[in-house]
Every structure is written in structure tokens, then in C-alpha cells.
Amino acid sequence: MVDLTIRSNFNFISFKGVFKNMANPPVMTVCLAGNAGKYKMGLPIGQLLLRGFMSGVYIAVGAALCTVCGTEVAKFLGAGVGKLIGGAVFPVGLILTVLTGMELFTGDAMLGPLAAMMGKTGWGSVFRNWTFVYIGNFVGSVAWAYLMLIGPFSQGNFAGPDPNAFALNAVGIAVAKTLPYKAAGGIGWWAALANGIGCNFLVNAAILLAITAKDFIGKFFGIWFPIMAFVSIGFEHCVANMYFLPAGMFVVQSFPALVTKVVDGKPWNAALAKNGGLGWGDIWMCNLIPVTIGNIIGGMIFIGVVYYLCYKNEFPEEHR
């Protein structure tokens, strides 16, 4: 019995040692997040634009994969399974961004303010980072949307009446993310903002888990689960929407017959037909502006401020 007790205690101690080597404790995770914020807020403008561009491309890759893999799934397996499949493939974008050190606006919405609250950077540097990373993310996302238009969505053939099924799904996604909010008026704008809050709460939970984990597999799954959750639930991510919305708009502009297309005596897409198409005004006013504000609130307040308040009294002296 004594030998078994000793062996059991030894195994428990060994397990704690293995876990310690796999993950940082929460207070250290917050300190490391503050250090990451300090580094990111200090990058020169050229780096913010370049790394922001690459992250915009990576997020657009995940969004494009979500569009393609989710095409017509709901028709055969149900809406929930369709959402799950899209959510399961989308996280590749954030995995690529985090593990290669690129700049994503929604992650910096938490890391920058956290570093500022910890006294590691100034708020001017935070707003500077947000501005140029947002621009870089936008350019990268729109560039990938154009690539998808002339490549997988059409193979360069714009002479036919309709694009392929993947392009039609891209239009459906873009319309669903803009025109219902527009039709709802003020409450629609609030709904878009609320969906942005929920999204970046989960995105920055994923960022913290990636910082917590010390190995590749831990970072992979730490990112994957929360991102899969936000996409499957249906929350709104401003950088992903920088791809989703222009991609759908580009398809509509390249195949204008889609606006008036009729199937079985009814408009193919009633909201699109009623609105007369999809434009940049719809994209910005009905989605990107409220979703961006919501993403800032979700990342800065619900993760950055909350975790700072939870652990500020436990920070080592050099982090206070």
C-alpha cells in the first residue's frame, strides 16, 4: 500500500511537470500577451501594412475555403451541419496568421489595449497600429476576393448567364451579411454590432489559448476550437467580411443578370432583387462599420480589460 501511494504521488507530480511544459499559467499568459502587444504596437508602418496584408490574405483563404466547402451542404445535411463544416475549415486563416507572426486587426484590438493598460505602450501607438493593420487587412482580403472571382468562381469565363455554384454561394453569403441588417434599420445595425462583439470575444480567447500553449499542437487546437465556434454560431468578423462581402459583390457586378434572375417564377435572391444589387455602401454601412466597432468592444473590453483586471495584482513586478 505504501509503495502504491508513493508511485501514485510520483505519477501525479510527473503529470504536473508535463502539463507545466505544455502550457503557461494564466497570469503568465496575460503578461506574454502584454509583451506581444508592446512588440506589435512598436512595429513601423511599412511592417504593419505588409503583415496586415498577409493576414488579410490568410483570413480570406479561410473564408474562401468556408465558402467552397459549405456550398449546398445545408440542402442535403441541414443548416446546422452546413455551419459546422464552414466553421471547421475557417480557422486555417488565424492559424497561419498567429504561427507566422502576421498582423490581424481583431487580435490587435485586444493585444494593444492590454499592453497600454500594463504601461508597455501608449494609446497613440495603439490607434496607429489599428489604422494601418486595418488598411493592410482590407487590401489583402479584397485582393484574394478578386483572385477567387477570376479563378475558382468563374475560371475567367464571364460570358455565361450564371457563375458556378461556389460563386452563387459567395453571393448568398454576402447578401445574408448585409441586406437583412439594412432592411431591419437601426436594430439591424445594433445586431451587426452585437455579432461583432460575440465574434471577437471568441477570437481573442483563441489568441490567449495560442499564447498559453507552448507547442505547435497546443497552439493549433487552442486556436481551432474558439474560431470554429464563432463561425458555426454565425458571429461577424470584420476582416473575414472584407473578403466575404467584396467577393459576393464582385460576382454580382460580373454577372448582373443575377439581380433579376428568376427561378420557378420567383426571384433567385429576393433581397438582392429588391435592393437592385450590392454595392460598397451596403458593405460599409450595413456591416463593416458596426461589425468593426463590435469587434473592438469584444476584444478590448470583454477580453483585454477583463483579463487585466483579473490578474493585475498577480503580475510580477517587471510587468506592473
Give me the secondary-structure category. Answer: mainly alpha
Q: Count of helices? A: 16
Strand order of the largest sheet: 1-2
**End-to-end distance, in Å?**
48 Å
- Detail the poorly predicted runs: 4-8
Q: From the structure provided, what is the oligomeric state, counting identical versus distinct chains? A: single chain
Description:
The protein is mainly α and 320 residues long. It is 78% helix and 1% strand. It has helices at 2-22, 26-41, 45-69, 73-77, 79-89, 92-100, 105-117, 123-150, 165-176, 179-184, 186-212, 216-233, 238-254, 257-260, 270-275, 280-311; strands at 262-263, 266-267. Strands 1-2 form a two-stranded antiparallel ribbon. A hairpin with a 2-residue loop joins strand 1 and strand 2 (266-267). It is elongated. It starts with a helix and ends in a 9-residue tail after the last helix. 47% of the residues are buried.
